Amino acid sequence: MHQTFLTVDLGFGDAGKGSVVDFLSRTYAAHTVVRFNGGAQAGHRVVTPDGLEHVFSQFGAGALAGAATHLSRFMIMEPLAMLAEAAHLRSLGVADPFAQTSIDVGALVITPFGRAINRLRELARGAGRHGSCGIGVGETVADALAQPEMALRAGDLVEEDRLYAKLKALRDLNLAKLATIQADLPANPQSAAELELLLDPDWADWLLPAYTEFTQQARLVSAEHLHRILRRPGTVIFEAAQGVLLDEWRGFHPHTTWSTTTLQNAERLLAEADYLGRVQRIGITRAYATRHGAGPLPSEDATLSRGLPDACNQLHLWQQHFRIGWLDLVLLRYAKEIVGHLDGLAVTCLDRLADLDMLQICQRYQLGPLQIDRIIPASDPHDLTYQSQITAALHTCQPVLEPLDGPDALLQRVAETLGVPVWLTSYGPRASDKVWQL
Asked: What does UniProt list as catalytic (predicted)?
C-alpha cells in the first residue's frame, strides 16, 4: 500500500500541525515526513505519550514517532539552527537525528547575514512592522529571486571555495541593504547585536567551520531521492509550515510570508514523482482564531485572549503579541477556496473551550452598511494590490458573532460551512488526546 497525507494550516499558523503530524505518524507508522514549504521559522510542538516535548523547526514532526525526515527543495533551511535542534532531539533519546534525515541539494540556506538584516529591517519599521519570525526566510527568498546565481543552496555547503564566495557576496549584499535603513534604526540592544554580527570582519573564522560541522552530519541528496521515498510502500506525511492566510500571494499583503503555504508545492512534488498512491488532504484549524503579530484578525477579542492564555505562544521578540479571536467562518471559507479540494478537517485545541463562559463563532462581517460572508480570491493569483485592498478592508470590518451551544455545534458549523467532514478532533497535545474518525 502507498498512501500520503497532505496537511495544510487553514489559518495564520499555530493550528497544531506538529501534533497532527505526530498523531498521523504514529497511527499509520509513517516511514517519512516531508517538509514541502516554509522554513526554519516553524514551531511545531509535539508531546510524546511519555511526556517528552520538542518544538520542531526543521526536522519532521514525526521524528519522535520514528519517522524519517526529508527536506524538499522548497524548504528554506538554517544549518546552525538545525545543529542545535538535533542536539535537543538527542537529549530526548533520538540517537542520530541526521541519520534519518535527507536534504535536497536545492533547498535554500538562510545565512546569519540574511537573518540579521531581516531583524534590522523590522526594527527600522518601528510601529509599522509587517510581522516576522526574525529568522531571515524572507530576505533569503528575496535575494534568491533577485540574483539566482548568488543564492546559497544546501549543495553549495560542501564546496568550500564556492561556499566562501557566495557567503562573501551575500554579506556584501546585506551590507548594501543596511545602508538604506540604518538611519531609521533605533538605538537599542537588539539593533546593536544584529549590527555586530553583520559587521563582524572575522565572520569566516566561525561560520565556515560551523557549516563544515553541519555537512559532516547532514545527508544531501538529489531530487530523485524523494521519488525513491515515495516508491516505498507505506505512509508518507507532508508537513505544512505556517498557514494559508500568510501565503506569499494569497495572504493579506504585506503581512505575509515569502513562501507558498497552500498545497501547491506538495502537489507538484507528487506529480514530479508520478505518484500513484492514495492521497488524502487534511485542513487543520484551531477551534478559535489566532495570529502572531501584525495584520488583520477581524474576530479578535481581548477578553478571549485573556481567557485563553497560551503558555507556548506568548510575547515574542520578533513576532510580537499572540492574538486570539473567535473562530472565523469568513476566513475559513477563503482558506478553503484558495487551497482547493480537502478530504477532511482536523480541529485542534477543543479542550481549551472548557475555559470559556460562552462559545461564539464569527459567521460574517459588517463593513459599513454591508454584511460580508465571503472574500473573493483575486482572478490573478499574483495581484498583490488586490490583496492589499483586502487587508485594508479587513482592518475596518466588525465581526458578526453567533452564540453556539457547545463544541459539537462548532464542529458541525465548520463541516457544513466548508463542505468537508471533520476527521480529527484534538483535546490536547498528545496522540492519545485525539479522536480519529477515518
From this structure: 14 (proton acceptor), 44 (proton donor)
Q: What is the pLDDT of residues 101-159, one digit of tens each?
A: 999 999 999 999 999 998 898 888 876 655 566 788 888 998 999 889 999 999 999 99
Instruction: Report the alpha-carbon distance of residue 69 to residue 58 in Å, rounded.
Output: 9
Reply yes or no on whether 44 is catalytic: yes
Amino acid (1-letter code) at residue 410: L
Q: Where are the domains of the chain?
A: 2-102+222-436, 108-217
Q: Is position 22 annotated as part of the catalytic site?
A: no
Please answer whether residues 383 and 307 qualify as being in contact, where contact means their C-beta atoms are separated by less than 8 angstroms.
Answer: no
Q: pLDDT tens-digit profile of 156-171?
A: 999 999 999 999 999 9
Is 257 annotated in some ligand binding site?
yes
Give pLDDT, residue 318: 46
428 is in an annotated binding site: yes
427 has binding-site annotation: yes
Q: Which residues pair with 92 in a beta bridge?
A: none
Residue ranges with strand state E in 98-254: 101-104, 108-109, 220-221, 234-239
Q: Which of 9, 22, 31, 44 is catalytic?
A: 44
Q: Is 235 helix (H, G, I), strand (E, B) or coil?
A: strand
With a cut of 50, which residues of the chain have pLDDT below it? 315-316, 318-319
**Model pTM above 0.90:** yes
Q: Which CATH number fits domain 2-102+222-436: 3.40.440.10, 3.40.50.11440, 1.10.10.10, 2.40.420.20?
A: 3.40.440.10
Among 14, 143, 156, 328, the one annotated catalytic:
14
426 annotated binding-site participant: yes
